Amino acid sequence: MRAPTPWRPAVELRALKYFAEVVRQGSFTAAADALFVTQPTVSKMVQVLEEELGVPLLARDEGRRKRGVTLTDAGRLVYARAQEMLATETSLRDDLEGLGDLTRGSLTIGVPPLGASLVAPAIADFHKQWPGIELKLLESGARAVERALREGELDVGICLAPVPDDMEGIQICDYPLHLLAPHKGRWQGRADVRLAELADEPFLLYGETFQLNETIAQACRSVGYTPRLACRSSQWDLIVTLVECGMGIALLPANYGERLDRRRFVSIPIVQPEIRWRLVACWRRSAHLSRAARAWVDATRVFFGAGAGDQPPLSGRRTRPGTRPSNTSLPRKKTT
Predict the structure, then answer these.
(1) Where are the domains of the chain?
(2) What pLDDT digit, counting tens, does each position of 262-320 carry?
(3) CATH number belonging to domain 173-277
(4) Is the peptide bond before 162 cis (omega within 30 degrees of 0)?
(5) 8 Å CB contact between 31 and 41
(6) CB 3.0–4.6 Å: which of 17, 58, 144, 257 could bond 178 by disulfide?
(7) Where are the alpha helices (DSSP H) in 130-178?
């Protein structure tokens, strides 16, 4: 690599886009697939970018093959700035394309699998209002959604309360967690179950990206034990099946537990302490919201705050019909 040269403002956004995609995907081949170009094209664009900037962005090991990519110090800086520039370009394009009537544009929403059935009607309602907006969904746990929001990969996302101080949000649901267990078992006929009573039970918990795991673990620690893990899954319906097979117990939001066949399962409120599952539609305080994102925020307030939708919650509560949720009333946590 040649020595750094004086700055020349010739860096193309396309080169930054290709470089950022290599970092996100972890390989040139995966980046090429995501960009619908050939792998040599991606390699050439990254090489050109390095030559234009006069510094190596990726550490290269000629002696052996390595999985993934490793950023240099300069690469980390360029990646951070590239995300900002590409986000600004996207916002500019969305604003220009959708000026006036939102006939065009795009919106990327992060949705945790456990909240998908609650959010799906709101997404469908938004599409009916703004059919020209292309909707892209990232389905991952709330912790991963929160991270993607910070990294500028999402416009808006569904997160688990409490929300960080650097986020704005609208609470969309609030349900207690229920014990889910097979119908024929020791819990049959109980009106509620104290969390401490589950200390010796094998727990079926959620995938690593699910923030709900930590909510459950903290509640268990508060009564003197750490949950005994039997299995993890990102699919709540698979967890339900494993519960029926006798592999362990699960804690599910009441609206899921109460949908299940009462001849096969019991769904019982957890008490002492009660554990709440609160979902919040979030966006970064410092982010520039495109017109599509602002329309989503407004539509979310109406859908979840003004009694929209014909299906009342089975337990817990949505925000009270006829009111607009207050951002300042949301439970918050400190960012690290």
Answers:
(1) 13-92, 104-172+281-313+323-333, 173-277
(2) 999 999 999 999 999 999 999 999 888 888 899 999 999 999 984 333 333 323 333 33
(3) 3.40.190.290
(4) yes
(5) no
(6) 257
(7) 142-150
